[in-house]
Amino acid sequence: MKMHNFNSGPSILPQEVLNQAAEAVLNFNNIGLSLLEIGHRTSWFQDVLDESRSLIKELMQLGEEHEALYLHGGATTQFMQVPMNLLDDGETAAYCDNGIWGSKAIKEAKLFGNVNVVASSKDKNHTYINKGFEIPATSKYLHYTTNNTVEGTQWHALPETNVPLVADMSSDIFSRNMPFAKHSLIYAGAQKNMGAAGVTLVVVKKDVLGKIKRAIPPIMDYRIHIENGSLLNTPPVFAVYVSLLTLRWIKKEGGLAEMEKRAKERAEYLYNALDSLPLFVPTVNKEDRSFMNAVFVMQRPELEQPFLDECKKNGMVGVKGHRSVGGLRVSMYNAMPMDSVKAFVELMTEFNNKNL
Amino acid sequence: MKMHNFNSGPSILPQEVLNQAAEAVLNFNNIGLSLLEIGHRTSWFQDVLDESRSLIKELMQLGEEHEALYLHGGATTQFMQVPMNLLDDGETAAYCDNGIWGSKAIKEAKLFGNVNVVASSKDKNHTYINKGFEIPATSKYLHYTTNNTVEGTQWHALPETNVPLVADMSSDIFSRNMPFAKHSLIYAGAQKNMGAAGVTLVVVKKDVLGKIKRAIPPIMDYRIHIENGSLLNTPPVFAVYVSLLTLRWIKKEGGLAEMEKRAKERAEYLYNALDSLPLFVPTVNKEDRSFMNAVFVMQRPELEQPFLDECKKNGMVGVKGHRSVGGLRVSMYNAMPMDSVKAFVELMTEFNNKNL
Asked: What Pfam family is a match for this entry (chains A, B) (predicted)?
């Protein structure tokens, strides 16, 4: 049976990327060795790193002033690493609290300086994105989460401010065009549109670094990673390579404009169904809906499990909501074929008509 | 041509591990999805984690008081994380300086407390392991590197002390039986005997934690990783799985006793040749020689490049010494077949006889 993979992360990847990754585990570029068995300082791997970091900058339309780094530790490490590098004791950073990940970032930043929560959607269970809030011009930076994987909201316009922008783009990076160059720092854990779990992308504008007094451990210091070209220590070689394969696929398919077009088509198709089927109730403010993760509940909660059972029977995985919010969630990342969305809508429609 | 892989890391892995890893990238356990596409909180991945952590404890003969964690960031992150968790401001830890990695660990520890270098082999270019040195009983812990990948030395007996032992075992873990339970903390980056790069093993005795006043960022706090069963954030799923495959292979082949037997056989065969061929000169104190990484130079340095060219012609990769020390190095990790060592010795002998 063909599986329909709605996992929120780790999540669906293009089949050709999986085929190429499997091949590289057996015989990398036909050199007679596995990708897992070659030194990270060989020209073989240097080529992977170079091509990959150059593709990132090309797709994001970034110039010389931005550096792309592959680091360890996931976005959760960035919750600590960002303030460790950018926020001195006594200084204040502005943070937006629009969901579980933003809240975690806030908690960690407080270990390094003052945090001013300039926007929060907590009053309505994070079902919307704040607009028109004040950001003091003295803020060291503004931190926000472009897409809230768990709550199903997404920023469809940049926060308006002149302070340096820092964005956690883990769950919608490379899914749309954005004014990337306007950001001082962008980070993303790589388990959605960017490849396999185990590597983190950090894009940083060099002029934002070196402005604090704290001593930073080398492995946490962005400047040292820049100096070492993402090779301070052994990188997560396989995850970096899968990221390269995924970036190549994105470019070949038409780049971020095409990814955005597909994401909108999938999301519109799904949200239209959610809006028209009485049994399924989307929970998020219409204009803030995520194109990546659609979150909804059943009008009659007792039907949730029977519906999930139907999904399972039809080879649809990953439809359960995050353990912290419950309900249902369908994730539709770059590699998600429209056919899977159509199959899911068909199942919802059938279930709706049978149980209404 | 069959390749002989003497890479120091990332390095040779068993062929059946590579085959199984490639298969999992296409179709994990025959579930119809790739290992890269499944959630880390599914029972599928939980089973991987559980089996893997239990195998680690079984192979290392550890009881309830030790926890095995899979973390991000490589051993280099542990250089920071160990003192961050164990060493308070004003306290002193004892460190052994026996090579490049130990020196780096020392440098990072100084950011968190005082470092007392109780042993150093720097006077002789790290070509030996110190013995019979003093370790003050007031030291918070003693840190040492069991195998020096770059310099080719290895501790063949434990340092004698009653203070808590902390060991970086990155390059010889799972290659021999050791009194693992006597250690309070063991860490190892996983690019040698433990699987694919991108995951770090930390084995920690719980009673050593929670004894400092510093606030530790959650992603760096061993206690929080223990509470979360290595699932605080998305783990490097693929690297964890390759580690499981490698551990299964070690157990099936006969466990650490068998790995040790094979390592000794390989090392003896190689060092015997090095001791008898005048053109090749081992640089390390005989009794401290590493069973994993044999370091040597050419009696006539101008022959180094011609010899490396011969290696290349014969499909032997990874023979060049580390960029920081030069010379030659042959790494012989668990998966290295005796045939590769024999082929290398044959080539050395031929080269010796032709150029003497």
From this structure: Aminotran_5
